[in-house]
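Run log // design_07
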């Protein structure tokens, strides 16, 4: 797999160097993330509808001309401490357009005000309400980026344990599934990752866990002893990010448990590069095309 993103990735790295998303107080970090995403509104052709799901604010992003028989539940990133409907509206909208499917983005509770397991409880409640509203599990998917990718995995495991019918598919973009920050990639890639660092992730993990063991399988799904019985999973990760090993080890564990998993490693790419427009990073376009095809295969063709 080759890329042609040299100029674009240099621009992104320069932008991130000038925009410290993790400086200041939690409120300042949240505002910075929302502000950084203001240049990426939903793409033309996507309607935005406010809603409530699982008792939390939510937002439907619906491409023109599609019905709601298939739905993607989106869980945003932000280290469980930041991120919002505003910060991820552009990315969620582009995913909706690429898939030709409605996406509903969830504004789950954040730490430190609401530590673990509040985010997980909200995600599970949102999925349960989708079922109660008549959405068939074989027409549902769960996906998320970074902490939202970890939350995607934790939600699948919690739903499985509760005997709730699982969705037809799941997608994790640069998932954070190991809150110990002990993987080799922190040492090997740490000086090249412009987005997140061990220090920042340690801080956010501490706020989210609030004393919970970082190896708790619902906080760090990589440590769940049984990853069998999950729906088909697509994992995407950049090779220039400290969470590379989280994705590699997750894919290995799911495959070893007999699961169906697609792992895409993108050379030269950074953490959740899909948040940057395809006009800047051509790899974003290729990633979104693949995500859209995966979702249609499992939610439409497979339904």
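design_07 sequence
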């Amino acid at each position: 797999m080759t890329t042609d993103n040299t100029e674009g990735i240099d621009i992104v790295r320069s932008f991130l160097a000038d925009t410290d998303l993790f400086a200041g107080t939690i409120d300042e970090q949240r505002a910075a993330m929302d502000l950084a995403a203001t240049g990426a509104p939903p793409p033309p052709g996507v309607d935005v509808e406010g809603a409530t799901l699982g008792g939390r604010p939510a937002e439907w992003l619906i491409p023109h001309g599609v019905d709601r028989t298939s739905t993607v539940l989106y869980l945003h990133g932000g280290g469980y401490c930041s991120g919002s409907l505003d910060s991820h509206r552009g990315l969620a909208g582009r995913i909706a357009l690429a898939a030709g499917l409605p996406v509903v983005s969830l504004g789950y509770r954040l730490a430190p005000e609401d530590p673990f397991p509040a985010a997980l409880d909200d995600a599970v409640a949102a999925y349960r309400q989708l079922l109660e509203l008549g959405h068939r599990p074989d027409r549902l998917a769960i996906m998320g980026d970074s902490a939202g990718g970890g939350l995607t995995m934790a939600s699948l495991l919690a739903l499985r344990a509760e005997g709730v019918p699982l969705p037809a598919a799941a997608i994790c973009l640069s998932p954070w599934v190991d809150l110990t920050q002990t993987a080799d990639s922190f040492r090997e890639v740490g000086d090249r990752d412009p987005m997140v660092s061990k220090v920042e992730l340690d801080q956010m993990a501490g706020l989210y866990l609030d004393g919970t063991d970082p190896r708790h399988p619902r906080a760090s799904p990589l440590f769940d002893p049984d990853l069998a019985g999950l729906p088909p999973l697509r994992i995407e990760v950049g090779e220039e990010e400290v969470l590379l090993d989280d994705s590699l080890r997750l894919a290995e564990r799911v495959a070893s448990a007999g699961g169906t998993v697609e792992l895409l490693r993108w050379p030269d790419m950074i953490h959740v590069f899909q948040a940057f427009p395809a006009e800047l990073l051509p790899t974003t376009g290729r990633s979104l095309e693949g995500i859209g095809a995966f979702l249609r295969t499992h939610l439409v063709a497979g339904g």
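The chain has a mean pLDDT of 93.
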